[in-house]
# Entry
Amino acid sequence: MKKNLILAMGSGYSEKDLAPFFNSLNQSGYTDDICFITQEQDAHALSNFSMAGNVKIHLFRDQKPMKKNRVRKIGKYIDSTCTRYPILRKLSASFREKYAFKNSCAHLRRHFLFRDILGSFAQDYQNVMMTDVRDVIFQKDPFDFDIRPDSIYYFLEAEHTRIQDCEKNSWWITEMLGKEALERLGPNHISCGGTIIGCPKTMHMHFKITTESIMQNLRCCNRAGIDQAPHHLIVWDKLVPNIHVIPNRAGIILTMQTTKREHWSISDEGLIVVDGDKIPNTVHQYDRFPDATEAILARYS
# Structure
């Protein structure tokens, strides 16, 4: 049977910063592959965690982007020109990708790298998880649930959150996709783009759509978090096949920031527990709560 793969990217992190992520993953029982993308100057922080042999370090060379205002000004000009002359959109595709990759913030650049990695190695893996790093820990094997073949799983934030009620998500969609898109997508629940699980082929499609959206909106390529806009477009317009949308407190991935405090607790062992008895496989955004952070650092540092 093929292995599973965790895709993650981080730069500027110390060994101490990475300890909760890797130590919790080791304790979770997960033994399949981890592909961690980082810059050469940051690879030393991974040295102790890569000794197990299942951590594959993928280095990328950081390129010096232009100043933010210049990136947006030039990007806006390119966007408007390609809109006015559609033939340029196709002719300039290679240039726009290079421009987007060079000038994107790391948060958006990772989608290009994940896309290319899966394009090369998708056939080698059963399922793939894309995850944030700094605020993620694993309490069980993250793939320990009923994963259907050829499917992709998106995970909601708290049940009371809707896109139109969130200032940031509303702005990201309006800025990248327009007001009409917000009107259509706004009533839906917020899905977190920092943790996704699915088959390699569909995950690759997800990253391809995301990068194309970034390349078509170069004025936005250095705005951290704006990848939530194409993320919600993919989820709620069903732009990839076999989508499964999972509630926040289902016990697979708990996204904590918007979760009401009454719905989670901390066990004597320092685990995050949902609704009194469920131990989520993966916990995201724990650092928004001092008591959760203290318990997690005590257990996994």
Observations:
- The domain at 3-300 is CATH 3.90.550.10 (Spore Coat Polysaccharide Biosynthesis Protein SpsA; Chain A).
- The radius of gyration is 19 Å.
- Residues 68-84 form the longest helix (17 residues).
- The chain has a mean pLDDT of 92.
